[in-house]
Specification:
420 residues; alpha/beta; eight-stranded parallel beta barrel; three-stranded mixed beta sheet; 46% helix
């Protein structure tokens, strides 16, 4: 049996209360391990988990200690969270995070230095006042390479098998490639084999569909010594954001490549009442709310389709979905609560993975995710892209019709308010 092409990495494990001592009980741990084992490889997907090594150290330790069966553990560095909190990532802080990654994870995302400056206030998701600085690009690339070297040195000190995931940054094909060269310059060649893969950063490129396509193709041009045929997609919880990887997996550009992607979309629904339901073979975003309604009936039917052993009534399902830990303790129903929450998350993952598997066999299904006819044509034409010359021709011929939110080039100023 071939290894799964896709790896869904569950993020936001705090929404399932995994580090809580009241959740870490034998019946829950056994159910988690047995259930995860039953879905590994289904729909050409494996399932893993992620924590933030800066903010979620307790979660990382709990996942590794109690919930580590049958899957990988990924550890984010927390660099973005430090920026948003105005915390300087000192060498001491970085070393602490590297050691935590070494002890409790299989893949550790690196600290990347971002070559972006501001010309004004910039809210999260807004690219208007963010600009790529070519002046800072080489310096940031080399500093990132030095961060990775230190990360690997700490892993060796800890006798760890954890492998770094390189985060690349750039504003075009040439700058992504030169970033890779700067990193390789900073690493001894014997370190290359210890890299775990590459995550294509977007901070200096932009966050539209066109930018997602660019990142996905540029990955294929990075030397295999660094990629090891593993691309990790950061914060991807919708089908449209998976399209570039699906197309390049379909047409052979991603031959023998593992595509891992992390998302909090499906775990956060426990707290916010959102869910992705399978309706007539299509995904539908729903809002459950807190009162018992038809959405709970439909979601429960979806869960029972994927996990027939879940035999609770809709009244019980609604109750356990909205039950607090204190209520669960008082009612001696912590296993029922955990089981309900876990299957709520896994059913949504199964829904998404099933659609990805189905769509990955038919480029027309992928193209129909987009309402505009010209974008559908562009996605179909992307299927024929195999080389960098093909890609540049695709950009010139039709790629510019794809929705785009680019980061523009500018003179260097300051990045301290980047994520205000």
């Amino acid at each position: 049996m071939n290894e799964p092409t896709y790896e869904y990495v569950i993020s936001g494990c705090n929404f399932m209360d995994l580090p809580s001592k009241h959740i870490c009980i034998d019946s829950n741990i056994k159910f988690y391990e047995e259930t995860l084992k039953s879905v590994q490889g289904k729909n050409n997907h494996s399932i893993s988990a992620l924590y933030n090594a800066f903010q979620e150290k307790k979660i990382g330790k709990a996942i590794n200690t109690h919930w580590h069966g049958n899957h990988n553990v990924y550890a984010d560095s927390g660099g973005l969270q430090m920026i948003t909190q105005g915390i300087q990532s000192t060498p001491q802080i970085k070393d602490e995070i590297y050691r935590h990654q070494a002890r409790y994870s299989d893949f550790g995302l690196c600290f990347d230095e971002i070559p972006v400056v501001l010309t004004g206030r910039s809210l999260r998701g807004d690219t208007t006042n963010r600009h790529f600085s070519i002046d800072l690009h080489e310096e940031c690339g080399r500093l990132t390479g030095q961060n990775i070297k230190r990360q690997l040195d700490i892993f060796e000190e800890e006798n760890s098998t954890c492998r770094p995931l390189i985060i690349t940054q750039g504003n075009c094909y040439e700058t992504y490639m030169s970033w890779t060269e700067y990193i390789m310059d900073e690493l001894p060649p014997e370190y290359y084999s210890r890299i775990g893969g590459v995550a294509m950063g977007a901070a200096a490129l932009g966050n539209g569909l066109l930018e997602g396509i660019k990142k996905a193709f540029y990955f294929s041009q990075i030397p295999k010594e660094l990629t090891h045929n593993h691309i990790h997609l950061l914060g991807v919880g919708t089908l449209t954001r998976m399209v570039p990887a699906m197309v390049f997996e379909m047409n052979g550009v991603y031959k023998d490549t593992v595509v891992s992607y992390d998302s909090t979309t499906h775990t956060m629904g426990i707290s916010f009442g959102n869910a992705i339901l399978m309706v007539d073979g299509e995904l539908k975003n729903i809002s459950l709310g807190r009162e018992l309604n038809q959405m709970y009936v439909d979601m429960l039917a979806n869960i029972k389709t994927e996990f027939p052993s879940y035999t609770y009534s809709v009244e019980e399902y609604h109750h356990y979905m909205n039950q607090t830990i204190s209520q669960g303790l008082a009612e001696d129903s912590m296993h029922d609560r955990f089981k309900t929450h876990l299957l709520f998350v896994l059913t949504q993952i199964m829904n998404m993975s099933e659609r990805i598997q189905t769509m990955s066999k038919d480029i027309d299904l992928v193209a129909r995710l987009f309402p505009k006819g010209v974008e559908q044509i562009a996605i179909k034409m992307l299927y024929d892209v195999k080389t960098i010359d093909d890609f540049k021709a695709w950009e010139d011929d039709i790629g510019f019709y794809i929705s785009s939110t680019p980061i523009k080039q500018h003179q260097s100023t300051d990045i301290t308010a980047l994520f205000d």
